[in-house]
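PROTEIN DATA CARD
Card holder: Transmembrane 9 superfamily member
Chain length: 403
Origin: Eruca vesicaria subsp. sativa
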Amino acid sequence: MEFVFSIIFLLPAAALFQESEVKWASRWDAYLLMNDNQIHWFSIVNSLMIVLFLSGMVAMIMLRTLYRDISRYNELETQEEAQEETGWKLVHGDVFRIPTNSDLLCVYVGTGVQCLGMVFVTMIFAMLGFLSPSNRGGLMTAMLLLWVFMGLFAGYASSRLYKMFKGTEWKRIAFRTAFLFPAVVSAIFFVLNALIWGQKSSGAVPFGTMFALIFLWFGISVPLVFVGAYLGFKKPAVDDPVKTNKIPRQIPEQAWYMNPVFSILIGGILPFGAVFIELFFILTSIWLNQFYYIFGFLFLVFVILIVTCAEITVVLCYFQLCSEDYLWWWRSYLTSGSSALYLFLYATFYFFTKLQITKLVSAMLYFGYMLIASYAFFVLTGTIGFYACLWFTRLIYSSVKID
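Structure generated from the sequence above:
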């Protein structure tokens, strides 16, 4: 009898259910997905406008100005005309002079290659659905493991650049590459974790996990860096397209807008402007306990970031060489890397406008972790700008006839 009554009451309820067109695997998207597609599309359009603007400038420099310069330089026939060369060709004997603190530059370039590889592969896996944002520990574990195995490419890139700078002690550069960036990040992380321990919070990283992280660093990452450095140093050195003079040329007085500090700070604005809207969603996901599920948007913004860093650095490098300033090595790295400064300033703005954090320890945790993120962003974007300028300078100076 009870069974009959159950059927009678359930029949009207069953009639209310309709077959859904939503696939079973996508039924949780309404809870996990951040439904701000219009804002995301606005972010993409904003970033694309910046890229198109920079691409127009680069095209004008590469196709018009450079073509005219190279044609004029190659048509010089008399010795008097050759002595009157101006612009970027004038510094051809110094443009590939080894920079100051070249070892440190090699270390940071190698570390940037490691960061770039980690971020790129992580985003590919996330887009393919292998990394669910609901499992936050899984995403972080994947990034750490990828960082460890990308040490092979870090050692290779740093030793290749080191050999181009006529370096001979590849083990020293491999050691610095393996320890400089991880040591700084680990020191900040240990201090922050000690603060959590002091508060007797369950959010502190246990000793077992700390030991595992140290093992990954010393047991896997460091050997891979040395292997990569050995393989890179074994290869023949990259030859410069022009010869370097023995006596460095005096750099003329520069205009105020070509001041290194001003030029570097200006160069970081556009890369940050290309990603700052998407950065809001990332910070919200991390600090307001929301889910970030739109990795396709994120990957597209990441590609736009790479293009923007490369283009703005090439443009400013060309202006610098035209003003007869050949010290471009470090400036190319710092120009795009300065976007990390704006990232940290935006994180500070976000803290005071979006978060209600009142405890001192919580505020220290926030700024400590954002400092680590900004440092990694500096290394990543700086390396992109450096390689773009290296490719650009080698291209233009190999295209002119120089006696």
